[in-house]
Amino acid sequence: MWIELKRMGGKPTAIQEAWHGALRQQGYAVVVVAGWHNAAAAILSYLEVDVEEGGF
Description:
Elements: E1 2-6, H1 14-25, E2 30-34, H2 36-46
Parallel strand pairs: 1-2
């Protein structure tokens, strides 16, 4: 899993998006998020951890 953390309102550049596409073609999960809370949520989702059921 690759995570690109952006500031609120930030967006990846064209070069970064091309890199994301190359990673996805290799089978990697790639997410772009703003803020660490969203990064944590993306990781938990990727790992299929249910926080509500005490999985974390």
